[in-house]
Amino acid sequence: MSSNQLIADAFARCSQFNILVVGDVMIDAYMWGKVERISPEAPVPIISIKSHEERLGGAANVGLNVKAMGANPVMCAVIGSDEKGDQLCRLLEQNGMTADGIIRSDKRKTTVKTRVISSNQHLLRIDDEQTAPLTENIEKQFISHIDSLFGKYKFDAVIFEDYDKGNITPAVIEHVVDQAKKHNIPTLVDPKKRNFTNYKGVTLFKPNFKEICEGLKISLAKGDFDALNAAAQQLKTMLGAGYVMVTLSELGVFITDGDSYSRTPAEVRDIADVSGAGDTVISVAACCMAAGLPPVLTAQIANIAGGLVCEKVGVVPIDKEALLADVVEKLA
């Protein structure tokens, strides 16, 4: 089978996959308007709001990307028993996604990130959130709920989508990784700072360049790939991970198995907005790994996917057909 046939077959089989997404779901709210003058009260622009929009964000945007690839995402998170939590559940339903994995708690707050945009320019972001880790009681409830999901669904991959909002704790990580190993399914991580060194035994660990430097408390030159490989090997050993994949923005994607590394350069594109690109990369990588594609090819496809969504304004999911066409063209 040629590489193009292999990729096309993997994309076609995505419709058979159930992918568990554990992490910090949130609402991405947008306020679109026009700036015509500066405030007399302070040197800030006055924006006249023309429209509002609320979308699924954070880990839920990973779910949207998984669904856009044709797979079935099962979101697993704790959100608030509040009005925004109601809205988040409605958005899941409107996007054809199950709320089976969602737990509501009056001890938590549903995260909302509001972006203020004028003429495609991102002026301001307002975060309304609670970031404390889950309490012990809620954590136990969450872990038990995850177990019930493994009993209900045959999962083909697990994604940890960590935004440091408290849903993912060391106990949750350990339990989910153990469950995934029992079922022989890959685990992929999009990490943040708080739990960076807690993801022991995962299949693919995907920090960005800033996160690997901060997580290991080291300073690296961005184009020094031998030094990056040494750092990634250190991280792989520390975590016992199968692969470390580092997203490098304009320099593309780096992946290592601990022995050798590969770097896929970024494509030259008209970048409109980098918001959500990391969500797309981990989603596409999970679908590729669920389909059994080799890690380097997985990284190449995920790299192209991340570039494609950067051409759009705002946080938007990948277009599967456009991605397949781009991948076949670029990797042929």
Description:
The protein starts with a helix and ends with a helix. A nine-stranded mixed beta sheet has the order 5-4-1-8-9-10-11-12-13, sandwiched between helices. A four-stranded mixed beta sheet has the order 3-2-6-7. The protein has ten helices and 13 strands. The model is unreliable at 269-274 (pLDDT under 50). It is globular. The longest helix has 17 residues, at 136-152. It has 332 residues and is of the alpha/beta class. It has a single domain (3-25, 57-110, 130-331), classed as UDP-N-acetylmuramoyl-L-alanine:D-glutamate ligase.
Distance between the termini: 13 Å
Q: How many domains would you count in the coordinates?
A: 1
The portion of residues assigned to helices is 25-40%
Average pLDDT number: 91
Count the strands?
13
CATH topology: UDP-N-acetylmuramoyl-L-alanine:D-glutamate ligase
Instruction: Extract low-pLDDT stretches.
Output: 269-274
CATH class: Alpha Beta
Order of helix and strand elements from N to C terminus: HEEEHEHEEEHEHEEHHEEEHHH
Strand content: 25-35%
Strand order of the largest sheet: 5-4-1-8-9-10-11-12-13
Structural class: alpha/beta
Rg calculated over all Cα atoms: 20 Å
Shape: globular
CATH superfamily: Ribokinase
Main β-sheet description: 9 strands, mixed
Number of helices: 10
